[in-house]
Structure formats: structure tokens, C-alpha cells
Specification:
heterodimer, A: mainly alpha, B: nine-stranded antiparallel sheet, 4 helices, globular
Chain lengths: 149, 250
């Protein structure tokens, strides 16, 4: 790697953090900043249509990570404490229709997330442990509450 | 006042009127929630807002681009009508009024936005308005086959004559400065490749007209500026489309 660029002093940070320096100056930072600026503006959360795309994209990314990491996990606590699962909960009520859609397609332990986000629990005592029955309960609850998925 | 042509099939996916404010003491989330009391019949759906920020990061060593969403806590509410086509957003950093397709008229959007803004201003008493913006996200479905983007849009990426003209993909973002009025116009154009195939090529043509300055929240200039931003947005829009595109949208 060479830092020989005529007329330009290599910033000290390039030696301290060489991975940030690409031998010609600050292109990486420029690209990074321009990309970030474009991305933040394009997906500005004030735009409702873009916000929903952003949330949907984040949800599917996190749900895939969660599914992949916990597919052989038997502990429900470990499954629902997974960082991606917790991040999905932190996305708030806007992910509820997305969770319901996942639940309708493949019943998986989304119940803790739904309880946490909505503050409701429509599952009857006799249904606990039966993932299909629990999923049905939540889907009926959603219909009754006019939530579309 | 400039009389702009009215397109019968306006390609507007979303119209956004946004006013950012500064508070001495920002209202807490519970106080923001109470905003719905006055508009509940028209806006019965309440969604707590969590602040997100899209992020993209270029990793120098791995030469990869990482994308993600960064969350930073609740910052307000979105109140939606029952068809979920109209949204009033009240946040600790401002107010936004959103209209999803179908669009009505600027006058209707402005008048309703102003009604909500006056309530926001009186209820939460911001110290200053620091930014006003009007953003229109358009989706223009161009008929295929398409020989030249220039047939439909004049603000577009230009490839030098003599070079291959076929565009696989593009994402173009221009920040246009209008120094006389102190406006910034951010024009973003891209195509939706996943939608190609239905005989149409969806062109996203997104125009954000922005004025960053400080106003007294009660100053009528806030709305005068929004009116001017609407003209600026229309200058960017109508100045960029061709007669063929106007026909498509008529």
C-alpha cells in the first residue's frame, strides 16, 4: 500500500486507522457520506410509504436472522431472547401485521413479541403449548381488532 | 399566483407537508398522544412512532456495503384515517401531514394541513419553526418498449452520444439550489426493476422542496413559504417532464 499522493498530506488518522485510507484521500468517506445522505433522505421516516418499506425490510432481515439462528434451539427463553427477536419487538406496533402474516404462513413462537407489543393476550389457558391453536387465537384477535395483514 | 396545470391522473404516490420545530422544552410522548382527542373521528387509527434512521456503511476492508435501520426510541404518534390514506404525524421535532394516492388538490391538502398545524402550534407551543418542506413522491409508469428516457423526462442521466445507451439501472440524486428564494430541491430518480415486465417501466420521480430558516411559529410566512415551495416543486416537476408524460398523466 502506498500513501504517495502528490501534494496531499496523509492525515494522521490514516496511520492510526489504515483501513479508512484508500491511498487517494477521502473517497471512502465521501462515498460513505453521500450514500448515507441519499439513503437517509430517500427513506426519510416522515414519508409514510417509505417508512413502511423500511420497516418491512428491517423486519424480514431480522426475522430471517432469528429463524436461522434458532432453528435448532429448543429453549423458548433462548428463542425469544434472541437479539433479532428483541429488535423486532423494539420496532413497535408497525410490525404487528408483518408478524401476523408470518404467523399465518408458518406458526412459530411469535406470541411473546405480540404480547409485548400489543399488551394483549388472546390465548386461552387450554391453548398454551399448542402453537397452531395459539396462532389461530392471535389471528382471530387481529380480525376482531380490524388489523389487516 | 402561478396557475399550474392539473393532471387528471397525477402520478403522486405520496404528498408530504413537513414542518420541523424547536422547543425550549419538548412535549412528552403522553402530551403528544392527546393530540388525537380533537381529530379522533377523522383519524381513528393511532400508531406510536419509533424514530428510525436508514443507514448505509461502506466497509473498506471487506469492500461491502452494509445497510440497516437504526432505532432511537419513541418520538411521537401517527394518526391515520380509517382508509389509512391520510396521516397526521405529531412528533417532538415537528409535524407532518401525509397523503397517499389518490391525490386531491394542493388547496385541500394545504388547508387541512394548516388546520392541524395550528392545533399543534397552540397545543405544544414550539419556540421556532426551523425547516419547512414539501415533498411529492411520483411514480410514472412509462410504456415499454422505451427508446429514450428523454421522450418522457428531461432531468435524467445523460450518456455521451456514441456510447451504448442501454441503461440497466440508475439512481440519480440532485440537490438543486435556488439561491434567490433560499430553497433546496432534492430530486431523486430511479426505476423499480422488480416491476418491469408488465409492459410498463415505473420511474420514481421524487421531489423534495425545502427551506431551512427560522420562523416565528405564528408567522404567516410559514404558509407563504410553503406556497412558494409548492411553486418551486412544480417548476422542478413540470420543467422535467415532457408533453408525452403530461399525456400519460392526463
Amino acid at each position: 500500500m502506498t500513501y504517495a499522493v502528490a501534494g496531499r498530506r496523509t492525515p494522521l488518522t490514516a496511520f492510526l486507522f489504515p483501513e479508512r485510507y484508500d491511498s487517494t484521500g477521502t473517497e471512502l468517506d465521501t462515498v460513505n457520506d453521500a450514500g448515507l445522505r441519499a439513503c437517509r433522505h430517500y427513506f426519510a421516516e416522515q414519508a409514510v410509504s417509505r417508512r413502511s418499506q423500511m420497516i418491512e425490510s428491517a423486519f424480514h432481515q431480522l426475522a430471517d436472522e432469528w429463524s436461522s439462528d434458532t432453528q435448532f434451539e429448543s429453549s423458548l427463553t433462548a428463542i425469544t431472547n434472541h437479539p433479532s427477536y428483541q429488535k423486532i419487538i423494539s420496532l413497535g406496533v408497525e410490525v404487528v401485521p408483518l408478524i401476523l402474516s408470518e404467523l399465518a404462513a408458518t406458526p412459530r413462537p411469535w406470541f411473546a413479541a405480540l404480547r409485548e407489543i400489543t399488551g394483549s393476550d388472546p390465548v386461552q389457558a387450554h391453548e398454551r403449548g399448542n402453537v397452531v391453536a395459539m396462532a389461530d387465537s392471535w389471528l382471530r384477535w387481529a380480525q376482531a381488532n380490524n388489523i389487516r395483514w | 399566483m402561478i396557475k399550474w396545470p392539473r393532471l387528471r391522473n397525477a402520478p403522486i404516490v405520496e404528498a408530504i407537508l413537513d414542518i420541523r420545530v424547536r422547543f425550549q422544552t419538548p412535549p412528552d410522548v403522553r402530551h403528544l398522544e392527546s393530540f388525537q382527542d380533537a381529530i379522533r373521528t377523522r383519524y381513528p387509527v393511532k400508531l406510536g412512532r419509533v424514530r428510525f434512521e436508514a443507514e448505509v456503511r461502506v466497509e473498506a476492508l471487506t469492500q461491502s456495503v452494509q445497510q440497516g435501520v437504526r432505532r432511537s426510541g419513541p418520538d411521537g404518534f401517527m394518526f391515520k384515517d380509517s382508509a389509512q390514506k391520510r396521516t397526521v404525524q405529531v412528533r417532538s421535532d415537528g409535524f407532518t401531514f401525509n397523503w397517499l394516492h389518490p391525490y386531491d388538490t394542493w388547496e385541500v391538502l394545504r388547508d387541512e394541513a394548516r388546520e392541524h398545524w395550528e392545533r399543534y402550534r397552540e397545543t405544544f407551543k414550539p419556540e421556532a419553526v426551523i425547516r419547512v418542506a414539501l415533498r411529492y413522491i411520483n411514480r410514472i409508469e412509462l410504456p415499454l418498449p422505451l427508446n429514450d428516457f428523454g421522450d418522457y423526462i428531461k432531468t435524467q442521466p445523460v450518456i455521451a452520444p456514441g456510447l451504448p445507451q442501454g441503461l440497466q439501472m440508475f439512481f440519480m440524486r440532485l440537490e438543486v439550489e435556488e439561491p434567490q428564494r433560499g430553497f433546496i430541491g432534492i430530486v431523486t430518480e430511479t426505476i423499480e426493476p422488480q416491476s418491469i415486465g408488465a409492459g410498463r417501466l415505473p420511474l420514481i420521480f421524487d421531489i423534495d422542496a425545502i427551506r431551512e430558516t427560522t420562523f416565528d411559529p405564528t408567522d404567516p410566512l410559514v404558509w407563504g413559504t410553503l406556497e412558494q415551495l409548492r411553486d418551486f416543486k412544480n417548476e422542478l416537476f413540470f420543467g422535467s417532464i415532457t408533453d408525452k408524460t403530461k399525456e400519460l398523466c392526463s
